[in-house]
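From the shared-data thread, chain only:
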Amino acid sequence: MAAPPHSPSIHRHLPLPKPPATHVARCFRDPKAPIPSSAGGDTNSNSNPLMSMLSSVPDWADAVSERRIRDRRPLYTHADWREHRSSRRHIRHLLSSLSSRVILSLVPPVSAFTAVAAAVATYNTLLPAYALTASSLPYQLTAPALALLLVFRTEASYARFDEGRKAWMRVLAAAADLAGMAMRHTPAAQPHYNQIHHTGTSALVNYILAFPVALKCHIISHSDVRSDLQGLLSGDDLNVVLRSKHRPRCIIEFISQSLYMLDFEESKRTIMESKLSCFHEGINVCEQLIGIPIPLSYTRLTSRFLVLWHLTLPVILWDECKWIVVPATFISAASLFCIEEVGVLIEEPFPMLALDALCKQLHDSTQDVLSVQNLVQKRLSAKTKDQDSSIRRCSDNGWPSSKSEQAKID
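Structure, as tokens:
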């Protein structure tokens, strides 16, 4: 995400006191540490040229799919929704099939099963006496089981996607509330408000806006944390965050300590601290969704069922379809593996969400609220001055200006 521009009202930061150092003993092995090799020779999978040639197509499809996953997704506008429900959407989707990330990822398995079907058809044609055929009854009995596996797989994946979306909506709503309460920390509310408090409030708003950005970089790989945060944090604060092992929690610490240094009212500080619990909850939900997938036994069962189904499909259909088993296998594999692939993609919800656009929307809306707040404050101050001057003019024109004068007239 491009670094948001500096705002005239959100710029410098209030230095925070250095907390006492705390040592936490390491009880677990570092997951990034190299694992000692076991006894035995080192096996290199790339030493076999045949395996390298066979894996070239899956490697290419995976590389294309991973590049497309890192693409930034925009938020929908009214024009996007009109195009989304257009009657021409089916033709548009068909013409864009070759650029689809899902379809490109299906090239290796669908090609392999189609080749197996062609091989079985060729064998049965050349050796009809030893043709590979079987009854279709087992397929009729197991087809509902395969359908249920695919339905449950996609339903479980969408539930994870929806949970991640709701977690991010709660984080963004809490950040907007916190920023609004911080921006209302104005001279009108505090008679002794000075430039130091103004700088501290600006820093607090920046910390609040930086939290969703840091959380986004924390849960999405290949994120450039420095470029995303350098427009919101000063150089010293940014270095502290980058040195931290858990950057979102580091920014929460900045927010928490800023609340105490800015001398908020006790009731208001309590409400603002309660909003931080939404940040902690968002971190926990996101980390659980990233670290805990759908049970691997279920994913493996679905994959093995699909593979065995399509490996034996040409044998089952040969008596009735002959060479039509090749296109039939292609269509079946493309359809069923496409459903399974969609479930795998949305199982990790955050690359599917427009997180960059949501963070930018929060920043822009906060800046807009701040500018409107300043404009309304100036307008109300000018209106108050106009009313005072009108009252003074009325008093100069002979109207009673005090209760004592009114009593004398009576």
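The CA atoms of residues 61 and 104 lie 6 Å apart.
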